[in-house]
Amino acid sequence: MPGAKYDMIAIDLDGTLLCPRGEVSAANLGAIRDARKAGITVTVCTGRGLLECRHVTTIIGQTDPVVVAGGSILACPVRQRTLHRFAMEPALVRGLVGHMTAHGHAALVLKDPTATAPGATGADSANESCGGTAAHPAGHDYVVVSPTGWKGVDPVTRWWFDTLKVPVKLVASLDEDQHLDHTVRVGVCGTRAATEPVAREVLAAFDGRVNSHHFGAVVPEGVIAGDGVTGGDQHIVIFELFDKQASKWNAIMWLAAQRGLRPERICAIGNDVNDLDMLANAGLGVAMGNAIPEARAAARLHTHGNDADGVAHAIQQVLDGKW
After folding, report:
1. In a domain, 124, yes or no
2. What CATH number does the domain containing 210 carry?
3. Is residue 128 in a domain?
4. pTM higher than 0.70 for the full model?
5. Residues 153-161: what's their mean pLDDT?
6. Same domain, yes or no, for 101 and 219?
7. 24 - beta bridge partners?
8. Are 54 and 47 in contact (CB under 8 A)?
9. 26-37 and 310-319 helices cross at what angle (nearest 10)?
10. Do residues 313 and 170 share a domain?
11. Residue finishing a domain among 243, 262, 281
12. Which residue among 54, 87, 120, 126 sits deepest, i.e. has the most Cβ atoms within 10 Å of its Cβ?
């Protein structure tokens, strides 16, 4: 097998590694194993929180650190412990949540569930094996701020929490959040028509202070969202905001620095808006066949869709020295 030109492959999950049914194909799994055998570090880069992707990291046997929560957290998937995070300022969190609830949305406030010191690696190191015992979580991954209780939370959000068994603390006011400084993301979920007004208002009010994404939600057919829109409809979206430094690429670069890897020796594979920075900045950016136009434009090369083992195809090209 020719020597690969890359030391790390960063792979998005939804729409990329995962097929339309939300599964990892045998071909993709085999390709990841082959990459590791060739000495390449494989990392997951996803918008999901650590708990929300644990079933996937288990299936692929992930022991190297992963980039989760849209790039706001780097974590050890074995010990379930945060290695580094890009936390949001409490005043910023309060301002964002205020706008969201004023528009009638339940604000989804994602936490660093392991409650490590902000911006620090603590006792863990990205250069060490992620062995050992699991960390003790803070008790919940999300604080959901909804003045009207669960009836004010979009059905898609409730389905997501129930399906993945995500620990949630429901509060009527952000004053009930005892760990505001552990916040890494604030967002809302709903129809595009319902989320666009608050998105415009927030981006105008906090210009330059946040990194934001507005993209399609993962929803199965049959789940009813707000305004009677059914699951699988492209109009069901997530609008989420982070600290301005939080992104998948910045998280990858933190991990690369820990391991002495150069950006030009990194391959990134993705399909959506939160993949744009890593597709554009990695030594090799590969867009999926099902990628949005912006992702295809940001990437240097394109692979098959997530319904046709696109990740496996891309990895094989890398291992063969063709890419």
Report:
1. no
2. 3.30.1240.10
3. no
4. yes
5. 92
6. yes
7. 18
8. no
9. 20
10. no
11. 243
12. 87
* Lookup result for tokens 């209780």: 149
Q: What is the DSSP letter of 137?
A: P
pLDDT single digits (tens) 45-98: 999 999 999 999 999 999 999 999 999 999 999 998 999 999 999 999 999 999
Work out the angle at residue 248's Cα, subtended by the Cα atoms of residues 74 and 92, and round it to the nearest 5 degrees. Answer: 80
Question: pLDDT tens digits, residue range 179-233?
Answer: 899 999 999 999 889 999 999 999 999 999 999 999 888 776 655 555 444 444 4
Q: Are residues 161 and 232 in the same domain?
A: yes
pLDDT given for residue 138 in this prediction: 57
Task: Look at the block and give the residue holding tokens 């989804």.
Answer: 108
Structural domain tally of the chain? 2
Task: Name the residue range of residue 308's domain.
Answer: 8-72+247-319
Going by C-alpha positions, the residue among 106, 70, 119 that lies closest to residue 270 is 70
- Among 160, 126, 133, smallest CA distance to 144 is for 160
On the question of pLDDT at 131 being above 70, the answer is no
Tokens of 110: 């994602």
Please answer whether residues 157 and 106 qualify as being in contact, where contact means their C-beta atoms are separated by less than 8 angstroms.
Answer: yes
Assigned domain for 81 exists = no
- My answer on whether 234 and 271 are in the same domain is no
Written as one letter, the residue type at 61 is G
Strand order in the sheet with 210-216: 168-171, 142-145, 107-111, 183-191, 236-243, 210-216
Q: Are residues 153 and 280 in the same domain?
A: no
Q: Where are the beta strands (DSSP E) in the chain?
A: 8-11, 41-44, 66-68, 73-76, 81-85, 107-111, 142-145, 168-171, 183-191, 210-216, 236-243, 266-270, 284-287, 301-302
Question: Percentage helix, strand, coil, to 5, in the chain?
Answer: 35, 25, 40
